[in-house]
């Protein structure tokens, strides 16, 4: 059985983060392992997210357990990395694995905002230091990076893209950081959902079905986890992996989405 690792945060509500990744990996018949970087809680009244970082020493010990004690990892996905120290810590270990050819695929989901929260200049996940740490340490190791529109703008150090041309310009900039494949999640309208893939040579607009639902908590995590799963299972064509991921998310939203409470809805991956 192929082994995969998710390095991400725990979403207490169960819809996103490590829990979502594990559900996706199991659905794809993979053996998932986890490295916890943070615990995300939500206030009961307004459902505001609070991010509680895990101590760096504990993160290092988790990585030693998985990568040195077990090994044989087919693919790695990173999600919520809440501090610059976390990013540097994870990047140091992944760099060693890449140089030793102990991992084939690394998928970076550069989470910079919890869905439903208003962005502020003081947001823990969205600071110049966080963005610069991604650019300097982690993106050069990425097989694939999967920013949404907001994250693409942050990484490209420009305004949030609003057009396909904007997305292309952002993708070009992000690619120059050393990423092999850039996938910008462009959202959707009432007819279609559009993502942009750039491999340094060609742009590919990948369209999929748009599902009209408010139960979208965790869709970004699920999308990047699906791509990771495809790569781990040997399906290495990035275009095909993206299309499969989009199809998985759309089907999950149509068939298994439900409201967790008055604030949030997600999917169950049945």
From TrEMBL:
Q: What InterPro entries would the database entry show?
A: HMP/HMP-P_kinase_dom (IPR004399), PM/HMP-P_kinase-1 (IPR013749), Ribokinase-like (IPR029056)
Cell division among keywords = no
Source species of the chain: Didymodactylos carnosus
The name of this protein is PN/PL/PM kinase
Q: Does the keyword Membrane apply?
A: no
Question: What Gene3D superfamilies does this protein's entry cite?
Answer: 3.40.1190.20
One GO biological process this protein is involved in is: thiamine biosynthetic process
**UniProt xrefs under CDD domains:** HMPP_kinase (cd01169)
A Gene Ontology cellular component where this protein is annotated is: cytosol
What SUPFAM superfamilies does the database record attribute to this sequence?
Answer: Ribokinase-like (SSF53613)
| A Pfam family recorded for this sequence | Phos_pyr_kin
Recorded catalytic reaction(s): these are: pyridoxal + ATP = pyridoxal 5'-phosphate + ADP + H(+)
Query: Residues in domain Pyridoxamine kinase/Phosphomethylpyrimidine kinase?
Result: 11-266
Entry keyword set: ATP-binding, Kinase, Magnesium, Metal-binding, Nucleotide-binding, Transferase
- Any GO MF annotation of the entry: hydroxymethylpyrimidine kinase activity
């Amino acid at each position: 059985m192929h082994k995969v690792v998710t390095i991400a945060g725990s979403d207490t509500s169960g819809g996103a983060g490590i829990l979502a990744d594990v559900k996706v990996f199991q659905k794809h018949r993979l053996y998932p392992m986890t490295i916890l970087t943070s615990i995300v809680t939500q206030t009961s009244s307004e459902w505001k997210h609070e991010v509680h970082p895990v101590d760096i020493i504990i993160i290092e010990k988790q990585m030693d357990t998985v990568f040195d004690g077990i090994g044989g990892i087919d693919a790695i996905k990173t999600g919520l990395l809440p501090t610059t120290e976390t990013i540097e810590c994870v990047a140091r270990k992944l760099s060693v694995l890449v140089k030793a050819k102990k991992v084939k695929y690394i998928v970076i989901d550069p989470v910079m905002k919890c869905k439903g929260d208003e962005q502020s200049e003081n947001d823990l996940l969205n600071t110049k230091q966080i963005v610069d740490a991604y650019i300097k340490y982690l993106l050069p190791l990425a097989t694939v990076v999967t920013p949404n529109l907001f994250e693409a703008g942050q990484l490209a150090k420009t305004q949030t893209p609003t057009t396909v041309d904007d997305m292309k310009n952002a993708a070009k900039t992000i690619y120059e950081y050393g990423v092999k494949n850039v996938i910008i999640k462009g959202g959707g309208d009432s007819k279609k959902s559009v993502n942009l893939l750039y491999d340094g040579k060609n742009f590919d607009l990948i369209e999929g079905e748009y599902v009209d639902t408010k139960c979208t908590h965790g869709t970004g995590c699920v999308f990047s986890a699906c791509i990771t799963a495809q790569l781990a299972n040997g399906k290495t064509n990035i275009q095909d992996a993206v299309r499969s991921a989009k199809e998985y998310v759309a089907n999950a939203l149509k068939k298994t989405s439900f409201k967790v409470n008055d604030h949030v809805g997600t999917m169950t991956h049945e």
